[in-house]
Amino acid sequence: MNRRTMDPLAARVYFYHARFYELSNRLAEIRPIQLAAHRTATLRHDVETQATLLNLLLRNYFYHNLYDQADKLLSKSTFPEKAGNNQAARYAYYLGRIKALQLDYTAAHTLLAQAIRKAPQNDITAGFQQTVHKFFIVVQLLMGDIPERSLFRQPVLRKALLPYLAITQAVRIGDLATFQSSLGQFDATFKKDKTYSLILRLRHNVIKTGIRMISLSYSKISLRDICLKLHLDSEEDAEFIVAKAIRDGVIDASLDHLQGFMKKRLSSTYQFLSESS
């Protein structure tokens, strides 16, 4: 049996070896073996074994929430270009998750989209498709975009993405109470999916959308009413959020600190027409 035949066979042996230890909750024990085997496969240019072991190591680190170690491994390793689509999809997924944690949402979005595109579309890979789409949706929301509703209707994704549809709807309408309610309702699911910390970052996006919608609906509104509409803890919170939204260019308004209200700025064209009439 030559090396070309042995390479994919060895890759599968390492995969099932890791799977056995994962099911036994003993993944940490085999990390040194995987690291040594990955170095050997890299030196020997055993493409499939090298790609498989790199992904298994990343899975090992992610399983134990060792994201810094995963990032270091990525910085010192090269994914073989000739590896199959299955491994390429998994690599893009892990790299996309790292980029999301590092706040590089554009790169994360590109990589997760690549993982979705490269993964085979069949019942066997349904679990992987669901996992990638969960992160893809959250990253898309963090970028300020709203996922297409048709995505949530796909048969293979519909049930798995229900909690993420609830979060998406809250972000879309800028309703902090709905967001907090959905976060509480699906708390265990998000923690199990390991999307919880990313979803927490969406609170700012929800508030920003809420402020934008309020500014479009009211020419003048008190901080107290903003506080009530956004379900904030205090008028001081509302004042801080409005001030930041104005500073960031999210809304075109002014803030009266003394009287405690936000007032929409009229466009110069509107002001000219008003003065001329």
From TrEMBL:
Gene Ontology process terms (BP): ubiquitin-dependent protein catabolic process
GO cellular component: proteasome regulatory particle, lid subcomplex
Start and end residues of each PCI domain: 89-269
Alphabetical list of InterPro entries matching this protein: CSN3, PCI_dom, TPR_PSMD3_N, WH_DNA-bd_sf
Protein name (database record): PCI domain-containing protein
Organism: Rhizopus delemar (strain RA 99-880 / ATCC MYA-4621 / FGSC 9543 / NRRL 43880)
Top-level taxonomy: Eukaryota, Fungi, Fungi incertae sedis, Mucoromycota, Mucoromycotina
